[in-house]
Amino acid sequence: xxxxxxxxxxxxxxxxVLLEAGRRRAxxxxxxxxxxxxxxxxxxxxxxxxxxxxxxxxYVREREKEAAQTALFWIDPDAGFDWSSGDGWPTKxxxxxxxCLALSILFTRGGERVGVxxxxxxxxxxxxxDRLAEELSRARVNNPPPPAxxxxxxxxxxxxASPDDWRERLRVAAATGATGALLMIADPAEEDFPFRGRxxxxxxxxxKRQALFGRAEAAQAEYATRLAAHRAAMREVAQAHGxxxxxxxxxxxxxxxxxxxxxxxxERR
Length: 269
Known about the structure:
With 269 residues, the protein is of the alpha/beta class. It folds into two domains: 3-19 and 69-268, Rossmann fold (3-Layer(aba) Sandwich); 24-63, no CATH class. 36% of the residues lie in helices and 19% in strands. It has a five-stranded parallel β-sheet, with helices on both faces. Strands 1-2 form a two-stranded antiparallel ribbon. Strands 7-8 form a two-stranded antiparallel ribbon. The protein is elongated, with a radius of gyration of 23 Å. The relative contact order is 0.16. The model is unreliable at 18-32 (pLDDT under 50).
């Protein structure tokens, strides 16, 4: 199953969802919205004389408000993110791609533009999803650039980098008026640390870093403590800059995570 098909199926769990910011409504813009009765405060300049000439009432032509906003996505290109411990689970990157594409489908249903952070200009519609899938699949931007003004930004990573690095990135993003989410993707082995006995840990992607444990189970408690502290620090950094942080395990359904993302982003926008 391709990531696009997987995303379509995932978005199907939330039928009819529209993110409020993209819904059509009356307001300043170019596209025709509707005719309404003229009110005294409108003045003569707003009268649509062609429509009014058909009867004995005065009408005003309302235009559709240009309410479309922009949602930008970034997926961690690090080799450690494109990894799975096996057991039939997808890689963290593959799951992130499915969730991000599903979310982008829901955004475009609401008339919003979607794009890759640092990529080509955002667009809306079905073709925008295809282009987004292609760009996200081959993206190699290690340090996400500042987003466009007042965008919704979704960062997908395992977020094992220093919280200080993300504090600066989110500070810069928040300065543009952006808000959004940190989608924290974890493999079950990273969460449960099921290793026993003599175990050699190697850096994914052919890196040189290695760690040999004689009894891996002896490190489980300390590992869990450090991981919890790191996650708490990341959530604090996100909250301080107007972002949310959601944790998702690749051995669980992505639908609840997508639902929580839609709800949380809708509230913030």
